[in-house]
Write a structure and sequence with these properties.
The structure holds two protein chains of two kinds. In chain A, about 35% of the residues lie in helices and about 25% in strands. Chain A is of the alpha/beta class. Chain A is elongated, with a radius of gyration of 25 Å. Chain B has one domain. Chain B is built from 13 helices and no strands. Chain B has helices spanning about 5-15, 20-45, 50-60, 60-70, 75-80, 85-90, 95-115, 120-130, 135-160, 165-190, 200-210, 210-220, 225-250. Chain B is globular and about 60 Å long. Classes of the chains: A alpha/beta, B mainly alpha.
Chain lengths: ~325, ~250
């Protein structure tokens, strides 16, 4: 028996609008039950890609499959399998929350018998029970965002696409949304775009970084750190003769390079100094460094391995893609 | 068309909670009420040759040019501006279902408002005790004309709303299109220069689309299949162009 197709499979996707290429030959796939974060600066092509995934926008070229179904030729079947929360979450201002969910549930072909209990369930999940009879136009931003999320999960689709689901929410509401998305892990495939990078790091199994219409990096946050930075770094607070210190570090790893982090003042052998150690090795060297320095008579007060944040990874990946584009661009010929 | 009933009931509800609907209904019923009072005064003073129903429908174009834009200008333009059209079209509904539901709801309200003016005649007959005030032939013909021509007028309003994101632009477009069709056609039909040799085919086309002529025929009890075809084909074309317009704008969203 063959394995089920991935929840989302995008191959060589291109979208151009009037001469501007919004999405430029991107390919990726998302496994069933996986939560994937979609990162990129404004105008990178995230929302366009998401709209193509939902079947709302047609692609210029390339193919998109959702649960094995081609979006281009079977959009109706694809739309039955997705829940979509668009950017800015447009909602009808004149409807009550429960009426809106009922209307959307009927459009999503949830039977009348199941719809009532399901609406109660999503209202409970999204903490909307108190406002179920309120007019949507009178709700706060946080409640409106949760109405959008409730609508996206209402028909229990296998794939949920959320464009900036936590935008405008307070920390308490962000926690609710984070728990809500985490609760979908394994049951539904979720693809989320966000600018709140710590959120993505906490919530998502994998991250896709997109810039200028191209996927510039993809993988788990740990894989991305390795791929982008290519080295591990440790911050050390140590006292001892600098010459002995360098020799002791070389016994652990000849490539271990020590440098003071930023501005520093000269220190005597008895004074503690702060050093950043960098190495190409990805395995844990902390214990070995402490043991080697202690054997050499140096005193170690603190040691810690530095983890670049997802923000650092994101900035480095996007900068790298801009550099690549600039390098590939033809140089202007000087005017005669 | 599986989702059409759900969409239609939603659209009717949205129309019923929209202030523009009540503005349109008040203006329409107020204006038609005034027209009816004037007719009653006219017929109360001296007996007339024509039925009051014929006179009543002569001014149909004025409320049409105001009411239809007010009922239809919001339907697609506002949905696109607010972005709710995007969320709607990411559910398993088709553009055709969406456009037809919006058309159906606006038409139901349009027809309902006109039908409510039948009450004027019933009230007059009850209090005057004069059967002539409820002359069934012209009254039925007039309402049939309103029902048939309303299909095209409302479809033109929906088409105007599909062309723009702005409600006010849609309203103006719709008003201009209706005035051109009704009053422009009438002005051309009265133009003697259209009878010159080369322009004869144009004269035939103008006569075919002469809305005032259709109204008079219906009021006389003449139900011409060509008139019905004119409104049916015009409605179908306007709705097809509305669907194409929504889909074309989606490509460049």
């Amino acid at each position: 028996m063959s394995a089920p197709p991935p929840a989302i499979e995008v191959s060589r996707l291109v979208k151009t609008y009037g001469g501007t290429t919004a999405v430029n030959d991107i390919s990726f796939s998302v496994a069933r039950g996986e939560i994937v974060g979609f990162l990129g600066p404004n105008g990178a092509g995230k929302s366009t890609t998401m709209r193509i995934l939902t079947g709302y926008l047609p692609a210029t070229s390339g193919s998109v499959h959702l649960c094995g179904l081609p979006v281009a030729t079977r959009p109706d079947e694809v739309k039955r399998r997705i829940g979509y929360l668009p950017e800015n979450n447009p909602l009808p201002e004149d409807m009550r929350v429960s009426e809106y969910l009922y209307f959307r549930g009927r459009l999503k072909e949830v039977s009348r018998r199941q719809l009532g209990p399901r609406i109660d369930e999503v209202l409970e999940i999204c903490d909307l029970k108190r406002v179920r009879h309120r007019i949507i136009g009178q709700l706060s931003k946080g409640y409106r965002q949760r109405v959008g999320i409730a609508e996206a999960i209402l028909a229990e689709p296998p794939v949920i696409i959320m464009d900036e689901p936590t935008i405008g929410l307070d920390p308490h509401q962000i926690l609710i949304v984070r728990d809500l998305i985490a609760g979908l892990r394994g049951r539904m495939t979720v693809i989320i775009s966000s600018h709140i990078l710590p959120e993505i790091e906490v919530t998502c199994d994998r991250v896709l970084i997109i810039n200028q219409g191209r996927v510039v990096a993809q993988g788990t946050p740990a894989e991305l750190r390795r791929e982008i930075f290519g080295q591990s770094s440790y911050v050390l607070e140590v006292a001892g003769d600098p010459a002995i210190l360098a020799a002791a570090l070389a016994t652990v790893d000849p490539d271990l390079h020590a440098a003071p982090p930023g501005e520093t003042t000269p220190a005597g052998p008895e004074e503690f100094r702060r050093l950043r150690l960098t190495t190409a090795r990805s395995d844990e060297l902390g214990d070995a460094i402490v043991a080697a320095l202690a054997a050499a008579g140096c005193r170690v007060r603190a040691i810690g391995r530095e983890h670049p944040s997802l923000e650092d990874v994101f900035l480095a990946a996007t900068r790298r893609s801009w550099d690549a584009v600039q390098a590939a661009a033809p140089r202007p010929t000087p005017a005669r | 068309m599986k989702h059409f009933p759900t969409l239609l009931s939603h659209e009717l509800r949205m129309l019923l909670v929209s202030p523009a609907t009540y503005v349109a209904a008040t203006l329409f019923l107020g204006f038609m009420g005034l027209v009816f009072i004037k007719i009653a005064e006219l017929y109360g003073g001296a007996s007339q040759e024509t039925s009051p129903a014929v006179v009543y429908f002569q001014l149909f174009w004025l409320p049409v040019c105001v009411m239809v834009p007010l009922l239809t200008m919001k339907c697609l333009a506002e949905e696109r501006r607010a972005g709710t059209l995007e969320t709607l079209l990411t559910t398993p509904v088709t553009t055709t279902e969406v456009v037809l539901a919006k058309f159906g709801a606006a038409y139901a309200l349009y027809a309902g408002l006109w039908a409510s003016t039948l009450g004027f005649f019933l009230v007059l007959r009850r209090y005057s005790g004069d059967e002539r005030f409820l002359d069934a032939g012209p009254l039925l013909g007039g309402f049939l004309f309103i029902a048939v021509s309303g299909l095209l007028f409302v479809a033109l309003g929906v088409l105007a709303s599909s062309l723009t994101r702005s409600q006010s632009v849609a309203g103006i477009l719709s008003c201009v299109a209706l005035a051109t069709l009704i009053l422009g056609g009438n002005a051309l039909a009265d133009s003697p220069w259209l009878d010159q040799g080369m322009l004869r085919p144009l004269r035939a086309a103008v006569d075919h689309g002469h809305v005032f002529g259709h109204r008079d025929d219906f009021a006389r009890g003449v139900i011409d299949l060509r008139h019905l075809l004119f409104y049916a084909s015009g409605t179908a074309l306007a709705l097809i162009f509305s669907i194409l317009s929504v889909e074309a704008k989606q490509l460049h969203a």
